[in-house]
Amino acid sequence: MEKDKNDKEVIAELTDAKTQLEVELADAKTKHEAEVKELTQAKAKVDAELKDVKAKQDKTKAAAPPDEAVVTLQAEMKAVKAENETLKAWKLAQEDIDHMHRVQDVVDLQASLLDTKKVQAAVESLKKLPNEALDAMKAQLEGVKGKFDSLPSGPKARLIPGVAAAGFDPMQPTIGDRVGKKPGEQ
Known about the structure:
Elements: H1 2-63, H2 68-110, H3 119-127, H4 131-149, H5 155-159, H6 175-178
């Protein structure tokens, strides 16, 4: 019987402990819910204050006129940008003029070799070439022109015996080109 008594006491003690834990948990739950409510209210208050501060900042920024220095700098920047655009346009125009001078020099040197009908087509094709290519063509054509200028021409040229028969090559270096050079050197 004693054993039954002990079991009843143990059950009673466990029931009391369970009840006591349930009461403590209910108290803790109530306490935490109150804390959550307080924190939620505090968060709402802070959010409202933050919103007010941001609204005041926006009004201050919108209402305050820009600083005089900022306005001056903006005006100067606009002037510099406009001048920069003008200088860019001027530079491009100068480059185009320089390029057309080079094209004209090459066309002038080729004029004796081209038909008058083909000059405009030559000008259009030469416009597409870079300046370096035009300079190289000009140098080569000046050399050729110098050789053609040294040839006899006109009625006297027909009277010079052996020019046609000797197979004269106008591209062959002239005697003046060979002076001062070693044999085999060009």
